[in-house]
């Protein structure tokens, strides 16, 4: 490949959609599968997903969650037991009707989500109050047959995610569970993905089917659209009723359990790639980068041996300290080509070592996000590199935070909502009466919707009147365009 073919040719700022599609393929994250709506996740993309998984999975396990695995098929009769789930997902369910040449007696749904197969088993496993709370999680893929354009990691018919399902003895405990998971998702964005996030509730008309309360993490993309980045639901007793999750309490009375579910998908990866990357390619926070540091030795015939030896020595030191480091000593590529390639692939920190560095016992460090350079002592390589990786994380976070802060605006009328989102994108918050009908004119005009309302139900709305109808405002609505 020539350097031209290697690099990205579109502009993030001016053609975000094309740029994203090019980024995903050229940075080796994913390819488009032969069937519309499906992607092939390539090793680099999958390695990032695995790192993300490890963070979240360890937090889940630290807080009482166990992993399990359930079948990908759900009998139709199981799906039908909870009517909201059926109505909510029916248009998007893929069905298996045949096994080999035989028509099945009962159709099987390819799971669009697994409440209807997991909850019946929680019902079997829970007997008494001593079995509660019960928490299971599975890492799997689900299928939702949406007829929209494929956008890797954002919109695909099959996607990877985790779904947690829990049962509790009362509403208070279940609500606490919902909040705990939401906080863990928020922490993942803030501490691992270098992305500030907003958290809130979904409005009544946009809750998860059958849920009492749906909470959400929302993140803002550079093109001004909001991404629903994770959700956590308190399901009340509707699923417990449908699937008979009961327990015997301390007074030997039978009680209905309260359940929750919560999920985060690989859309988190899409949001991550979209947020930090640039026209040179992928930008990753060191927390998730499969390779955190690449060492590029620069030599001529005379210096080759000592430069390579010095570089290899630095690589060993860093590796021993737990840094994910790669020594790029390929003979058949010049340093410029290597720089471009590692920039495209999102390696956060580059170390350049030539004969100057060897003579002065130094290293030259270059930050991926902004090209900042520093010359540092060889002696303190490990500590210095770790500091620089932290600095790179902080830079990415600060930039995303600055973007978000400038993109939350207020409006007091329908025209102002339309004008502000139309011109700038981002979030517009306003007073809202709580009626879905007031979302309609905004949706129709500019395809923006209420992505969330503040989480605390007793919080006063920012304005007294609904910006759309002028009636008394019940809460504050955040309008935005969405993915
Ligand atoms: Zn209204």
From TrEMBL:
Protein localization: Cytoplasm
GO CC terms of this entry: aminoacyl-tRNA synthetase multienzyme complex; cytoplasm
Coiled-coil ranges from the UniProt annotation: 168-195
Free-text note regarding domains: Consists of three domains: the N-terminal catalytic domain, the anticodon-binding domain and the C-terminal extension.
Family, per entry: Belongs to the class-II aminoacyl-tRNA synthetase family. ProS type 3 subfamily.
Record-linked NCBIfam families: proS_fam_I (TIGR00408)
The protein's role, per its UniProt record: Catalyzes the attachment of proline to tRNA(Pro) in a two-step reaction: proline is first activated by ATP to form Pro-AMP and then transferred to the acceptor end of tRNA(Pro).
Subunit organization: Homodimer.
This protein's name: Proline--tRNA ligase
Source organism (scientific name): Halapricum hydrolyticum
